[in-house]
Amino acid sequence: MSGSSAVSGTAPCRFAHYFVICGIDTETGLEPDELAALYQWLEADRQGRDPDAAATGENFEQSPLKRTFKSKVLARYPENVEWNPFDQDAVNMLCMPKGLSFRTQADQRDPQYHSFIITKEDGSRTYGFVHTFYEEVTSPQICSAMQTLYQMHNAEHASANPPSSSSSSSSSSSSMDSLASSLDEADSPTSSSSSRRAGGYDSSRDTLYVSKALCLIAPMPFMHACRRFLSQLHKAVTSATAPPLPLESYVHNILYEVPLPAPGRSLKFHGVYEPIICQRPGLGELPLADFPLAEAFTLLGVENLVQVFTCTLLEMQILLYSQDYQRLMTVAEGITTLLFPFQWQHVYVPILPASLLHFLDAPVPYLMGLQSKEGTDRSKLELPQEANLCFVDIDNHYIELPEDFPHFPNKTEFIQELSEVLLSFGIPTNTGAPPRTRSSPGSTPGSAPSTPGRERKTVALRQLEDDGRNGNLAGEELAVLELLQGNATLERLQALTKRTGVTVARVDALRAGVKAQSIEGQGGRTAAEEEELKNAKLNVQLREVFASRFTTMFADYEAFVIQSAPDLESWLTNREQMHNFDKASFLSDQPEPYLPFLSHFIETQMFATFIDNKIMSQWEEKEPLLRVFDARIDKARLYNVRAPSLRSSSYQRCSILKESAQAIEQRLMKIDHTAIHPHLLDMKIGQGKYEQGFFPKLQADVLNTGPTNNKWSHRTATAQRRKDRHRQQTEHLTLDNDLKEKYMQEARSLGKNLRQPKLSDLSPAVIAQTNWKFVEGLLKECRMKTKRMLVEKMGREAVELGHGEANITGLEENTLIASLCDLLERIWSHGLQVKQGKSALWSHLLHYQAREEKLEQQAESPVSHVPERRKSDCSIAMPSLRVSLIQDMRHIQSMSEIKTDVGRARAWIRLSLEKKLLSQHLKQLLSRQALTKKLYKRYAFLRCEEEKEQFLFHLLSLNAVDYFCFTSVFTTIMIPYRVVIIPIKKLSNAMTTSNPWVCVSGELGDSGIMQIPKNVLEMTFDSAFRPHTHISALFKCQNLGKLTTVQLGHDNAGLLAKWLVDCVMVRNEITGHTYRFPCGRWLGKGVDDGSLERVLIGELVVPSGEEDSGRGCRTPPLQRSPSQTRRISITSLSGRGYKLTSGQIQEAIGEAVNNIIKHFHKPEKERGSLTVLLCGENSLVAALEQFFHHDFKSARLFQKTVFVWDFVEKAVAYMESADQMGDLQETAEPLGMTCQSLCHYVNAINSTPRNIGKDGKFQLLVCLGARDRLLPQWLPLLVECPVILRMYEDTALLRDRTTVNALIGVLETLHDFPITLEASLVKGIDL
């Protein structure tokens, strides 16, 4: 990431491109900072005040020494470099992000150092290194101007404030006050400000100082080397004696005579006083990263840094917050370097100048750094978007995390390994407050971030990990080590822990570290070099630990890359339509604990770009990071030939820490290249005379051109010529290079909505343009996301209908829905006028709700609503649910499980998606245009009419598939269900005097038995005005999930105790899902099979409005429960001349068994209901019933129907009597056991207190036999029994030995699977 891409072969390899000086322009004098004015303009616009009035006057409230004045680029050498054009605005803005600052002799004036980064449109980077110091103001005009400003300020204050109040009252009332860092000087110490308050600045007695910045702009982040060069340059100006050579010599030397070190080499060059060494990693090593990671870890603490790193990987919005620019850079660069082999693909502005604050409004992932004012509190910081924000307060060592996001795999062991590396360098690891989270209990289980107590921390560790905020001293380490070695208790503890296998705090590591330091100290290096070497070694070891996590996690990634295009051109043109990575197969190959993180991560832009680079590497040179990563994977493969450890989630530690540190040390021991020494230049004598404390005006003519005879500039020129020749040859072969380049840029920018903010010309027009890009980007993202959700979901349903392989898991679906929630939050927070609450969407909904309820009270009419469109044959009985956005909000508001606004918004989105009302609800929400206008600025996404329409249309497409994303996530909430029992439509059959009851079961549990009061008999009329009666009741119970069965029964009381029921309808009153449980049979003694209760199997009812519109793409129906044709009385089928052939019956049994086996081959979370496969239509019970009914003599003797159960009972009675007479004694022992088990089960079923009827009993016997793997043993007993001759024709399948043996073989295949029965089936059976 770190600039390795910035310096390509064509860019001449100079160490530094520009030397720049920024400061006050004495000609133009004091100018108030325009950017500050622009900032006020933006701020006024945000608050809805008149922006133009705000931007006119200067800020008289603030004391002049605290105001920001315009800085200018005073000089730059050379004027321009063709391969890296000078961006004056950006450099000026980032050298002095707060403009000029003034001080008097009473103030602290320590020099400051910071670095910055400029990212160009094409993603390449340039680094800037800045040394800021204070120089005395000699210009009388500026001193008098400052004096005048003070007089005006004092007069203003005297009139505005009565003397009682303090004269330094807070300045701005702005809501983003804490962001106004440009209007305040952060690092002024409080002690001196009190003295200034009394007199401020008086030119007669005070000396005025102003800030000046020296800056080096370089292609690679050699942070330490540049820092040392600049500080030596400044020292040359402030020291009492003049430097050995004119300053021009040193600047000329670093600009033109110091080359970039070659990969894998070190370089020595000379500053003003002492030599400076830097080195560059080799081609197989991790790319250059010179920012000290130890500092980032010390500032945040290991755990916090890992959490922020995880947020970065998942492309959330990350805002760093600190008073110190260099800290912002260190943490930002630290985190992005650790991403290897991936690269941050979105907005990256580690130092956000005050004028770019509107960028915090960006509805895209970003990594930005914001300078905080001294003494301002995080609570005052108003951020437009917080639902998906990771806020990192660097100075206070704490972080705030977004709600529910997954942990990094093996997080605990990972933190442990990092801590050990840090401890081995003597750096304590317990800094950083535990992360504060905005998490809701209603969030996805198992993903709310918690801070696991760092396990097994032994005493030694605690003592080692003293507070490390103040940096750590090597002396302290030695003392600790002596303490540990001299402590007998600790020695014993160490021995004990060694035996028990607990990791001891790394005393050995510390010992080694101290020893190593004492050896190194003798290597003849200065203390500064020592420190630098230590930092470099620590950096590389920490990065190796991170890199090795990715090498193990993605060791097999290549196997899942889909190479589908024949050449680069066709790949680039079809880039958007192509699947590049087989996500489902990849996830199915990963250990379970990794899935929550990986399923999110492989959806990110950085992962997509990584895979794109992999595919493009077939046709062009490998991207550098990819090359290093692939080489590491190959190396790991050599060592462990596809070890089984890849599937396991056991933690593999990094094995190459030592060698990586050695490479660095060796390069420093043996310097490969020494640059030319600075020397006298051919220039006019006497100019730029040395004057202590003042940086001289340098002679431009000698600094604007480099030497012509330089050997390495010549080297690059020949290399360049060679390259040109090669390019001309290849150009004829491939497509025109410009076109190709354009394609590449387009392909690479796919999905990146907006690369980088332009750091110049920030007129409101430019801001509007930027916002327009955001709007387009959001729309595109919405299109991609909805398309992905549809394709995945339909792919899965196609599988259920029998096409191909499944390619989405419940996990993946959840990930996609979570990212849709995140997108909606970002859309709703774009262009907000005033932010209220953490969730912009929920805040808008609340405004809408308040307004509608007010209108409702005025009109005293129900909430405006559209009648529910769910009408079907049962709708006569079911009162229709109204479609009401407010009603859905109230459901969510009544859920006590959800504690935060972000959680409520997500729950509401899930509910609307499940009800297929998301698009309709949002359309209704946005139809209140007055409200939208009040809440949003004119450039907001929600006020762009055309885009808004397209967005709603994309969401509408999600109605084509069924989601259960609300029911399946909020499993503990209470849900009202409406149950309607519909009798067959003859009035006489509908009446019953008995007391009915129901028990509803679903995938998550059952409701328990609920008595239905008799007085709820209702009368409705259908369209032909025929009356219908039905029984309807409403009850509340904990979420049952998808419904599976209903038990329906009555107590047989009264005269009319027989009841012919058509079906039972059950509706979830929150989601509107309606299930139909067909019955079509009598409940009553002495009628049908004498059953007083039945177990009915349900199916989801499709709202009829959709049946036509979405026919081609609907979710397949769940398997149905037995249809009425089978159930009216299966025994009478033969009488009707409707008879299945023996072939059809055998086929049905095979099909039923197959379906059960397929069920167990699905992932556990996606199996659905087994009950349907055992007892529904085309189920095992149904097929076996057909088998037993084949040529069954069910003749009606004296009007009494004979049932299969009668045959089973008779067979059992025969066996029992035979057993008593001793006939069965001769039979083989196991057969006797089987015989006993059959009798035992049949008697248990007969003695159950439930009145389940004969068919119900047969069903129960089959289910229990399948569960306990007894069916294949029972069949021969029934076949052998003489009763069979009386009750079956000769042609019956049951009397055909080969068929029965085949059936036994088929049933035995179920023995491999753990069949569990729903409680509703086996209730009351005592085995």
From TrEMBL:
Q: Where is this region: Disordered?
A: 156-203, 429-456, 706-729
Q: Which UniProt keywords apply?
A: Guanine-nucleotide releasing factor, Membrane, Repeat
Entry's transmembrane regions: none
Q: Is Cell membrane tagged as a keyword?
A: no
Predominant place of localization: membrane
Q: Kindly indicate whether the keyword Methyltransferase belongs to this entry.
A: no
* All copies of domain RUN, residue ranges: 811-971, 1171-1322
Q: Kindly list the places in or outside the cell where this protein is found, as annotated in its UniProt entry.
A: Membrane
- Extract the InterPro entries matched here: cDENN_dom (IPR001194), dDENN_dom (IPR005112), DEN5A/B (IPR047278), DENN_C (IPR043153), PLAT/LH2_dom (IPR001024), PLAT/LH2_dom_sf (IPR036392), PLAT_RAB6IP1 (IPR047277), RUN2_DENND5B (IPR047292)
Please provide an example of a Pfam family that matches this protein in its UniProt record. Answer: PLAT
Q: Where is the PLAT domain?
A: 975-1097
Biased region (Low complexity) positions are 159-202, 432-452
Q: Where is the composition biased (Polar residues)?
A: 706-719
Superkingdom of this entry's organism?
Eukaryota
User: What Gene Ontology cellular component terms go with this record?
Assistant: membrane
> What are the protein's GO molecular function terms?
guanyl-nucleotide exchange factor activity; small GTPase binding
Positions of the UDENN domain: 53-621
Q: Which family does it belong to?
A: Belongs to the RAB6IP1 family.
**What is the protein name given in its UniProt record?**
DENN/MADD domain containing 5B
Its source organism is Dicentrarchus labrax
The upper taxonomy is: Eukaryota, Metazoa, Chordata, Craniata, Vertebrata
What gene does this protein come from? Answer: dennd5b
